[in-house]
Amino acid sequence: MDDVTDPQGCAAYTFSITVGDSGYMSTNGNGHSNGNGNHLNGNGHKHDNNYVVPQPRRDWIVKRKEEAARTGDWNMSQMHFARKGQITEEMAYVAHKEKLDAEFIRAEIAKGTMIIPANINHVELEPMAIGVGSLCKINANIGNSALSSNVDEELRKLHTAVHYGADTVMDLSTGGDIPMIREAIIRHSPVPIGTVPLYEALSRVKRVEDLNIDLYLEVIEEQAQQGVDYFTIHAGVLIQYVPMVSKRITGIVSRGGAILAQWMTSNHKQNFLYENFDRITKIMAKYDVSYSLGDGLRPGSVADASDEAQFAELKTLGELTRQAWKDDVQVMIEGPGHVPMDKIKEQVDKEVELCDGAPFYVLGPLVTDIAPGYDHITSAIGAAMIGWHGAAMLCYVTPKEHLGLPNEKDVKDGIIAYKIAAHAADIARHRPGARDRDDAISHARYTFDWDAQFALSLDPETAKSMHDETLPDDYYKEAAFCSMCGPKFCSMNWSSKVDKYNEEVHGLKKPELTQIMTDQMALRS
């Protein structure tokens, strides 16, 4: 895919709130903010009754609702405002963060090639954008199972996810008090929250066959009222596609896809989400909930990638995208999964072709199936590639994938792997300023500024602890070597002497990076 032309910046649009004014805690530069870090410390969730979670969007939403009451227009979606030519506060906020022009953001949202998932009831949210014209984003999945986890554990996972840089978080809880867990997560989250409403609907009936559209609409209305920002909805799994999976090694690996396939084959009816798509869309427009159209027939092994079933569903998702756009509802498209490297570009090209460039949100993809326990690595390889080719958001995979429910450490490991993948994609796509942090840490490395190296790392704690395993004393934070080479064999130490020769003899100076260093360190102070 071609690079997006860099807009001129957002100086032409005056906006009264700048990034950082929301009241959220500052970070080490790895993500949005620590968000609810004042509620959560390194040992887990701790409630402070004297602390009120910031609500940076509250006044914006109050004003918007008053206008809706006056005009009778209750479509609250960002796409609706964008198509009316309005630059919302969320669009201006995103433009500032992304270093893009606010009009460019508005135009992309109006076209459907970018979304700002921002439910009007999630007032704690710091707005962010998902689209090929913005930085590549990552999502972290949390949530309990019927066998494990609780509210405190999920809030610890949320804190870890936001602290290490997750741009959105999905609550995939399937057990216990699902609404209570979701409410706690939303009220503590500065990032968009997504869910799969089908899970809660299934928890309310005895059998899959008992699912129905009235129950489903009740669930999504309740979740939208709580403030869920995007719903994964598997409306593209159609009964005529079910026989197409018979040749697969791993069949249907999406939980939502498998549940609906079971419902359709048991009831001998078409997917009730597909047949009632317009009714779902009306609810989403009212609360500005974005669609994340689920890939219920995604491949679950590299052997099944790019098969008839996957692309049949993708074509239907494109049709549903255009249907949602008629009601000005934002849409992103979910993608695989498990894909060998030689088929990754094809996945993006097909999605752009069939779904008119709606943002592509992909799980991985894993490029090989042989490494359980290391699937954060097998998938980060594919994630970096698909991000380079044009995926807008990468859903992380943890080391526990295929093995069990991720714990807090698994969440961290998955996020770090995916921050690397997304950042590598941004560099390859020549995003404005994407390489500045790399240049800064390289300069710090070359000049043996160890403290700056640690601060500029994705995971400063780990970088520092690894260095200090062998050279813990403060003296070594100023040493021109590490334990790998020692003072005699350090290449950069010797190279610095060559620099002096080049300057004295040839008048050649190295590039000046002081300002980049200053700017990048300031972001992490």
Describe this protein's structure.
Pathway: Cofactor biosynthesis; thiamine diphosphate biosynthesis. Catalyzes the synthesis of the hydroxymethylpyrimidine phosphate (HMP-P) moiety of thiamine from aminoimidazole ribotide (AIR) in a radical S-adenosyl-L-methionine (SAM)-dependent reaction. The two termini are 36 Å apart. It is globular, with a radius of gyration of 24 Å. It contains 21 helices and twelve strands. The protein folds into two domains: 115-428, TIM Barrel, CATH 3.20.20; 436-523, no CATH class. The protein has 525 residues and is α/β, with parallel strands linked by helices. Helix 7 crosses helix 8 (213-226) and helix 13 (344-355) crosses helix 14. The longest helix is centred in the C-terminal third of the chain and has 21 residues, at 408-428.
Task: Characterize this entry briefly.
The protein has 525 residues and is α/β, with parallel strands linked by helices.
Look at the structure and name the CATH superfamily of the largest domain: Radical SAM ThiC family, central domain
Question: What is the domain total for the residues?
Answer: 2
Mean pLDDT: 89
Detail the poorly predicted runs: 1-49
> Which term fits the overall shape?
globular
Helical content class: 40-55%
CATH names the topology of the largest domain as: TIM Barrel
EC number: 4.1.99.17
Pfam family, one: ThiC_Rad_SAM
Function: Catalyzes the synthesis of the hydroxymethylpyrimidine phosphate (HMP-P) moiety of thiamine from aminoimidazole ribotide (AIR) in a radical S-adenosyl-L-methionine (SAM)-dependent reaction.
Catalytic activity: 5-amino-1-(5-phospho-beta-D-ribosyl)imidazole + S-adenosyl-L-methionine = 4-amino-2-methyl-5-(phosphooxymethyl)pyrimidine + CO + 5'-deoxyadenosine + formate + L-methionine + 3 H(+)
